[in-house]
Known about the structure:
- With 316 residues, the chain is mainly α.
- The chain has helices spanning 17-27, 29-39, 41-64, 75-85, 93-105, 121-132, 134-137, 162-169, 175-180, 192-204, 210-230, 237-242, 246-253, 264-284, 291-309.
- The protein folds into two domains: 17-136, no CATH class; 159-309, no CATH class.
- It has 15 helices and no strands.
- Helix 5 crosses helix 6 and helix 11 (210-230) packs antiparallel against helix 13.
- The chain is globular, with a radius of gyration of 19 Å.
Amino acid sequence: MSLRISCSPHLKTKLTIPAIMFQVILALIPAIIASILFFGIQAVFIILNCILTSVITETIILKVRKKPLLIKDFSAILTGLLLALILPSGTKWYAATLGSIFAILVGKHIFGGLGANIFNPALIGRAFLMAAYPKMLTTFQLPKSFSNIAVNSVDALSAATPLSLRKFSQTITPTIDLFFGNIPGSIGETSAVCLILGGGYLIIRKIADWRIAGSLLATTAIISSIGYFLNPLNGSMLFHLFSGGLLLGALFMATDPVTTPITRVGRYIFGISAAIMIMVIRYFSGLPEGVMYSILFMNAITPLINRYTRPKRFGI
């Protein structure tokens, strides 16, 4: 397969689509290892479930559509893996299966398949599960190495995430726990250091454009610093950068070249706007987190951003 990503002129990579997808999967290996260390066999089952279901669903859809089987492009594997990493460790097998089917069918193929989808398929899958199983998707288990994080009730089965603790209990989780991942949360989003390593690898290899991730993280840092100055219980800059799904979203989902703007200016607008929405939700809404909603919203207006930021050709 020689098809190449051409949706962004700023990604100076000569890698084919399968190679790009494979590199993203490699970059997620540290987060995968952390998820297994912290959440054990449950994380393994969720990851395998989502990947296998995504691949099987993709195969069936391509056969029905009488399209060539392109499983070796790794896109279905990556979608399943990303979906698994943004699910709690207590997600039931049937929910993970339904979410994977929805991600591939609705998030990807209903728009025409790889390269034609408007929304990030993994986030679409999680949004569906949030609507179908809200309690399951907001119940988080303690990691195996859970130590001294303050929670309302130290229960061996469930606990509040750092963002929930900040919003509802005015309790700030220690930065060291956020950095290494010793916290309740979705299985692949807890370890900041693992996500930074993987995301940094993608940016250095020019597989992911730094403009979206950089502008999103920088805007989050600025807003959270102002919030911390006004009230320390709002959480510090590092607290907001390392908690929730911010790093996973900024480095691995917001940088998706298919569902994000193609222009330099558009990519800055995407990152800055997404960060503002995230912090508005974290500070002022009834939800502790807003990464998923902000990225999906920005995916929806990406065509509009492209329209108004595309430079005019000379003489026109």
